[in-house]
Structure to design on (288 residues):
């Protein structure tokens, strides 16, 4: 797999109260297996790589503090974590953890945008990030939900150089982000921005939603509910495939998307998602 360009999503992980339960849930849902040993990265014990077809696609970690949110978090690639952290501050965001080396694998930063959505940075060392993406059981998309689109759009443009393209459906306030130096549009989009409207609960904070590719959305939803998960947006069709929004059996929210057309990206998540929001999505400073 080619190296990740600046600002491209390159890793995801989940912080869970019960790591072993999480391994069982996602193992049965996505066919994940796990690395033979787990590592302790700072305050996050038992940080465990999830594998699909033997390739790292995500990680699960045991929360060391019950007050931490139970979430999926996303990391964006950077060539210089220290410089990107500076740009985050200058653009009005918050740097939660300073650049931290991780066992020679790379360097990570935890940050938040001006509206409070939490995300991570990853500067590669021995590991670029995902070894598989876009295939069933692996990451395929992410989008940020915000109440302050003007501040957030300007922030990600300044920090990563993202260029926004509205969806053809102008009834939906959604931007597809393309990396700096590319021709903006569906073919180059790597993430998106949606707006938290009145259809969402008033207590919902800014957050990222992580999508995983699946073979069959309806079958995945049935399997997730059988495993103790919950449906927050039932399966429905969008121009880029068939999707649904779920929470796992511990409350971490994520989306599934079946067979997006080649070279296309998913659209927006539905306005009913989620029924009962969890804490803001947070990336793990332990990184990939």
């Amino acid at each position: 797999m080619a190296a990740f360009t600046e600002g491209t999503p390159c890793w995801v992980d989940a912080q869970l109260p019960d790591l072993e339960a999480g391994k069982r849930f996602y193992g049965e849902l996505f066919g994940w297996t796990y690395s033979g040993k787990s590592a302790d990265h700072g305050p996050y014990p038992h940080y465990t790589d999830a594998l699909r077809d033997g390739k790292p696609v995500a990680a699960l970690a045991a929360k060391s503090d019950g007050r931490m949110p139970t979430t999926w978090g996303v990391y964006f690639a950077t060539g210089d974590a220290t410089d990107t952290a500076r740009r985050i501050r200058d653009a009005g965001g918050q740097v939660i953890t300073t650049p931290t080396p991780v066992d020679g694998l790379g360097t990570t930063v935890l940050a938040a945008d001006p509206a409070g959505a939490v995300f991570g940075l990853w500067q590669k060392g021995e590991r670029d990030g995902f070894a598989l993406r876009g295939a069933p059981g692996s990451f395929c998309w992410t989008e940020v939900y915000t109440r302050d689109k003007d501040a957030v759009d300007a922030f990600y443009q300044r920090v990563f150089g993202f260029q926004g393209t509205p969806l053809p459906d102008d009834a939906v306030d959604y931007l597809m982000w393309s990396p700096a130096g590319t021709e903006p549009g569906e073919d180059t989009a790597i993430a998106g921005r949606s707006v938290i409207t009145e259809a969402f609960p008033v207590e919902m904070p800014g957050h990222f939603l992580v999508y995983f590719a699946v073979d069959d959305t309806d079958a995945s939803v049935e399997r997730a509910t059988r495993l103790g998960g919950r449906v927050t947006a039932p399966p429905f069709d969008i121009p880029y495939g068939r999707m649904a929004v779920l929470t796992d059996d511990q409350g971490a929210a994520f989306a599934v998307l079946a067979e997006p057309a080649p070279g296309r990206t998913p659209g927006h998540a539905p306005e009913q998602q989620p029924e009962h929001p969890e804490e803001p999505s947070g990336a793990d400073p332990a990184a990939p």
